[in-house]
Amino acid sequence: MRICSVLYTLLVAGALYAASPTKTLPVVYVNTQHRQGVTDTETQVPATVYIDSVLPEYRSLASQAAPLAATIKGRGNYTWKDFDKKPYKLKFELKQKVLGMPNNRHWCLMAGADDYLGFLRNPAGHIISKAMGLRWTPRMVPVEFVLNGQYMGLYFLTEHVRIAKNRVRIHEQADRETHADSISGGWLVEIDNYWSQDNIEFWEGNGQHVMVSLREPEVLSAPQRQYIEQQINALNEALYGSSENLLKQLLDLDEAAKYYLVQEIMEDCESYHGSCFLYKDRDSLGIADPWKFGPVWDFGNSYNRYRETWIYDHPIWPQYWIGQLASWPAFQEKVLENWYVFYHDRKDSVRNEIRALANTITPAAKQDAEVWNGTRGYNDNSDMSNKRREFLNRYDWRIEWLYRQWGEGKRPKTYGTSVVQSPAPCTKTLRGGRVVILRNGYTYDLTGRRIE
After folding, report:
1. Would 135 be classed as within a structural domain?
2. Smallest Cα–Cα separation from 100: which of 61, 135, 126?
3. Overall pTM > 0.85
4. Distance CA 292, CA 324 (A)
5. Does residue 53 contact residue 99 with C-beta atoms inside 8 Å?
6. Is 78 exposed, middle or buried, given 0-12, 13-18 or 19+ CB atoms closer than 10 A?
């Protein structure tokens, strides 16, 4: 490990001696304590951070004279191990609003070293997700990154996926919680392709072995572990069962359809194999909260096959659950409705946003290639004009193929109209001024917890 670290330092030092930020993007400066190297994905290295916004639409964060306390470590699996240009995880000591993004301590610096399509695959997937109307899409801003005085090239400063007010906005249950009402949510899990002793493992109805990793809460009580195992197995059984009502109770089909459409438009043949998140809020007022697919995250294998077929049709990697989910008529209807809205209202604006992003990052992409070209696993994106053209051609090709399958889709009943909200449950004031909620013959406190 020490030899690899030394070689990596020499490689970077040799490549970076003449490189400096183009200052066409915000510049993130990170300095580690005693200029300590960042050599793994576990060690939190003490550091300071400041950001020079450069552009008028962003505010700078702190300054060189007064930087903010933070830690930095490596992140990722394959992207950390197999590339010299590496991704990182930043954690501020205190919550910060960063480049127009809401308060949080946790941020990622995504490297995109494996992207041969002009650093556009991950941001394009997030742009489509936002246009599709998923409940939350991680925000990202292209930046230039300087670590301990060395220019590291073009990165994307990205919101880390976690339960929080401005991220996956669900109830944040405590580690080792035991109360029956509280352990119903919130949960954040991931269909994963890396083994951990804490994973939930099961056999899909078609015989495939599936692993689900638990993201939040992190440390489980026995009742929490039992609950989440029962939930995952119940969802698996419902997908391969015959009751549409049961499936709808366990899974939000509309959100699942939006998530699927993003993956299908991006032709992401690894989408339901890893970095596939699901979350569930706490049950409230006697109503079970269904599981929801999302948020989107990794599009590193998008447009790799370039085949006119469904992403779950003979994929390079197993695609868990989606092949079976796609066979349900209720899910198909939601797909057609959301496709109708995207095709009519959003596909062109998405294309324009991707084009604009490509133009914005062009100078930094060229400088990035000056730094990293020829290093392990790196893809040269210095010719952004051709990369932009190739990416947009693939986007157009995918939209055209999907149109041949689905036509214009199915116009939703609520298309062009406001959604009518269901009436609020009845409230009652008890003696002493305590307010409770009455619904379905039960009484709940104001947090939604049932009162026995």
Report:
1. no
2. 61
3. yes
4. 16
5. yes
6. middle
Whole-angstrom distance, CA of residue 403 vs CA of residue 261? 12
- Residue 112 counted as domain residue: no
Tokens of 349: 């604006």
> Total structural domains in the chain?
1
For residue 443, being part of any structural domain is answered with yes
Separation between Cα atoms, residue 87 and residue 230, nearest integer Å? 35
CA distance 178 to 137: 31
Q: For residue 286, what pLDDT is reported?
A: 83
Are residues 233 and 202 in contact, defined by beta-carbon separation less than 8 angstroms? yes
Residue 425 lies in a domain: yes
Q: What's residue 135's pLDDT?
A: 97
One-letter identity of residue 208: Q
pLDDT tens column, 121-170 = 999 999 999 999 999 999 999 999 999 999 999 999 999 999 999 999 99
For 335-380, the pLDDT digits (tens) are 999 999 999 999 999 999 999 999 999 999 999 999 999 999 999 9
Q: Could you identify the residue written with the tokens 């040799």?
A: 14
Range of the domain at 432: 421-452
Residue with tokens 């000056």: 370
